[in-house]
Design brief:
It is a single chain. The strands form three sheets. A six-stranded parallel sheet has the order 7-6-5-8-9-10, sandwiched between helices. It has a two-stranded parallel ribbon with strand order 1-2. The mean pLDDT is 95. The chain has 13 helices and ten strands. Helix 6 crosses helix 10 and helix 8 runs parallel beside helix 13. It folds into two domains: 116 residues, Glycogen Phosphorylase B (Rossmann fold), CATH 3.40.50.2000; 176 residues, Rossmann fold, CATH 3.40.50. Strand 3, helix 3 and strand 4 form a beta-alpha-beta unit. With 312 residues, it is α/β, with parallel strands linked by helices.
């Protein structure tokens, strides 16, 4: 998702170019509908799986927006002109381990453009792209409970436990919201969503029942999206929604907050800034290293709900 701005700007700079995109198979749904791409190349565990296929292409230029050990090794092995971006691992380490903030106040999307600077590609400041499929919009509209009501979309999941909004906080948020609340997530959140839907009469659970495209249409039609630091947050940003982000162990200073360059006021960030242990990781953990999980459990769910109900 976060690479989509670079892809669009490269396409606009070189409209006749052929653009291939390499991504893990499990993330293909996030980019498969991108109209600015000519071909999607996927792998399961390691990009070396498709090395021969990539080598045959003899690319004019390789843009590395991952810049980890695997992607760096791959582009070196391909021996084609290439560039990457400043990943700032040392600065992230200082912030995580010693709480020394040397991170620039620059979103990672803007840093990505360093990788295409030599090509003369610049950021058009139009934000992220996520292309919706019409047939899934029909699916969403068929859900009668949403047809004639304004609703808030509430994202349940995240890759890591320490990024997820706990159930008790979700319940606090839901109890303070007026009208319909649509729960979003994948199969891992289905059971949680079902429990909340049983407890609250104004809740519709789509977690585990909807595809990524269908979930994105629910986001598109929502009046506000409440989410943690997760993938659906970036889709909400691509769809220019008003977003309330509830932060756990990670921090916006890493540069991965909702990217809304045209409407930054639509990004409301809720953080517990009174913890010396935060951030404890640039990604997350399966449990709180300190055992208290205060970065999430001390949030005021009623306040979050009130912010979602405010006019904008």
């Amino acid at each position: 998702m976060l690479t989509s701005a670079v892809v669009r700007c490269v396409r606009n700079k070189f409209p006749s170019a052929t653009i291939h995109f390499l991504v893990k198979e499990k993330f293909r749904d996030a980019v498969i509908t991108n109209k600015n791409l000519d071909k999607l190349v996927t792998f399961n565990d390691h990009p070396s799986e498709v090395f021969t296929k990539l080598q045959e292409e003899k690319y004019d230029f390789i843009v590395d927006l991952q810049r980890n050990n695997k992607s760096t090794a791959l582009r070196r092995k391909l021996k084609r002109p290439s560039a990457s971006f400043p990943k700032l691992n040392i600065q992230k380490f200082l912030l995580t381990m010693f709480k020394i903030n040397r991170m620039p106040k620059v979103h990672v999307v803007d840093r990505y453009f360093e990788a295409v600077k030599s090509l003369g590609v610049t950021n058009d400041q139009l934000g992220l792209d996520f292309f919706l499929i019409g047939e899934d919009e029909i699916f969403v509209k068929e859900q009668q409970v949403l047809l004639h009501s304004s609703y808030v979309a509430l994202v349940l999941g995240a890759t890591y436990f320490t990024k997820r909004i706990p159930q008790e906080k979700l319940e606090e948020i839901i109890s303070g919201l007026k009208g319909t609340v649509v729960l979003l997530g994948g199969p891992a959140e289905k059971e949680l969503g079902d429990r909340l839907a049983i407890k609250f009469t104004n809740v519709v659970n789509t977690a585990g029942y909807s595809s990524l495209q269908q979930s994105s249409h629910y986001i598109k039609n929502a009046r506000t999206v409440i989410t943690s630091d997760t993938g659906l947050m970036h889709i909400a940003a691509a769809l220019n929604k008003r977003i309330i982000t509830v932060w756990g162990n990670t921090v916006p200073e890493f540069g991965m907050y909702a990217y809304l360059p045209q409407h930054p006021e639509n990004n409301v960030m809720i953080e517990n800034k009174n913890l010396r242990c935060r951030p404890c990781s640039k990604l997350g953990y399966d449990k709180c290293p300190k055992g208290h999980f205060k970065c999430m459990v001390e949030h005021d769910g009623k306040r979050i709900a009130n912010l979602a109900e405010q006019s904008f």
